[in-house]
């Protein structure tokens, strides 16, 4: 991470806090979450695509953090869901995968994401300003398309009946040094179902967690991990650009969730999921949004754990001033 990326990360986190409020101890977004434990077992096809250790067929432990709201308000109503998975590898390292129900990201670059967030708010009041946002979107049809998809996205009836998408391209390398770019998708064994946001918000805010935990009392909840393989000319550096629907999809494994867990049991009270934390056989693409995410999460963690001032001072000493407030 360079100083420019950290400045952007700081500005983005501060913008989130400005628009949604700051709740010490909680994430800036996806604040409401619970943890679950299980295993991931790769399918035989996985090792043909990547030499990553968790793609070789032996079960590896996983934790999953599901969130039932995109906001930073830990006490607000349920909304759009998320799924963050951590794979615990045999050598003691971990690798993370973060996925959302949307299929494309809102912008092409972090700079554009900051501009989108700033356009959505009245600079004087900090309140949403639909007219400013509409003007911004009118000049960026690719952003308007992604925002429209998000606005039309139905709500979940269950975490176990929602497809989740990691949005970014990664480069997968197998034992023969053959490489392919692909995007991750989690597909629920129970099938996909949805409801209106209005219907979801008639239910208690914790409903989706309670529904999942009732399912787990009856038996495991399974997701298939599917890779959509890039074709010639498909952009690998733009999470805003969808790939054609006819691109090959390969099932590379199954995640089996078995029960709830806690950060105390896991032994990591912070649990910062980082999609740039990859392992041998899986490499980052040149996606600038993907590259920015580590800094954004580090800044957010520093805020929510009370370490912000010390974190900023350390970076200042290292020649990486945050700026932007």
What does this protein look like?
Residues 308-325 have low confidence and may be disordered. The chain has a domain at 34-102 and 153-289: Catalase HpII,  Chain A, domain 1. Helix 1 (3-20) runs parallel beside helix 3 (110-119). It has a nine-stranded antiparallel β-sheet with strand order 4-3-2-1-10-9-7-6-11. It is built from ten helices and eleven strands. The two termini are 19 Å apart. With 325 residues, it is of the alpha+beta class. The chain is globular and about 55 Å long.
Class derived from helix and strand content = alpha+beta
CATH topology of the domain at 34-102 and 153-289: Catalase HpII,  Chain A, domain 1
Q: What gross morphology would you assign? A: globular
The first-level CATH class name of the domain at 34-102 and 153-289: Mainly Beta
Number of helices: 10
Low-confidence stretches: 308-325
User: What does the average pLDDT come to?
Assistant: 89
Radius of gyration of CA atoms, rounded to a whole number: 19 Å
N→C terminal distance: 19 Å
Strand portion:
15-25%
Q: In which order are the strands of the major sheet placed?
A: 4-3-2-1-10-9-7-6-11
Named CATH architecture of the domain at 34-102 and 153-289 = Beta Barrel
Q: In which range does the helix fraction lie?
A: 25-40%
The H-and-E topology, N to C, reads as: HEHEEEHHHEEEEHHEEHEHH
Which superfamily, in CATH terms, is the homologous superfamily of the domain at 34-102 and 153-289?
Catalase core domain
């Amino acid at each position: 991470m360079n100083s420019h990326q950290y400045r952007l990360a700081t500005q983005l986190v501060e913008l989130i806090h400005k628009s949604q409020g700051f709740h010490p101890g909680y994430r800036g977004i996806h604040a409401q979450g619970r943890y679950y434990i299980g295993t991931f077992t790769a399918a035989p096809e996985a090792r043909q695509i990547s030499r990553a250790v968790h793609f070789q067929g032996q079960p590896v432990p996983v934790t999953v953090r599901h969130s039932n709201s995109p906001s930073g308000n830990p006490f607000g109503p349920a909304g759009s869901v998320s799924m963050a998975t951590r794979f615990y590898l045999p050598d003691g390292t971990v690798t993370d995968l973060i996925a959302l129900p949307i299929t494309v990201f809102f912008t092409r670059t972090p700079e554009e994401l900051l501009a989108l967030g700033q356009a959505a708010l009245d600079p004087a009041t900090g309140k949403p300003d639909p007219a400013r946002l509409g003007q911004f979107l009118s000049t960026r049809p690719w952003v308007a398309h992604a925002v429209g998809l998000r606005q039309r996205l139905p709500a979940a009836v269950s975490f176990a009946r929602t497809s989740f998408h990691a949005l970014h391209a990664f480069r997968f390398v197998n034992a023969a040094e053959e490489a392919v770019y692909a995007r991750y998708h989690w597909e629920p064994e129970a099938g996909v179902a949805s409801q209106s946001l209005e219907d979801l918000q008639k239910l208690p805010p914790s409903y989706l967690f309670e529904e999942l935990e009732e399912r787990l009392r009856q038996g495991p909840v399974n997701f298939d991990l599917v890779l959509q393989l890039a074709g010639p000319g498909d952009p690998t550096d733009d999470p805003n650009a969808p790939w054609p629907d006819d691109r090959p999809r390969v099932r590379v494994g199954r995640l089996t969730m078995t029960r709830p867990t806690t950060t105390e049991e896991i032994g990591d009270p912070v649990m910062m999921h980082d999609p740039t934390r990859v392992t041998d056989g899986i490499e980052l693409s040149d996606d600038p949004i993907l590259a920015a995410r580590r800094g954004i999460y580090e800044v957010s963690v520093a805020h929510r754990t009370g370490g912000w001032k010390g974190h900023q001072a350390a970076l200042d000493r290292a020649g990486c001033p945050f700026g932007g407030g």
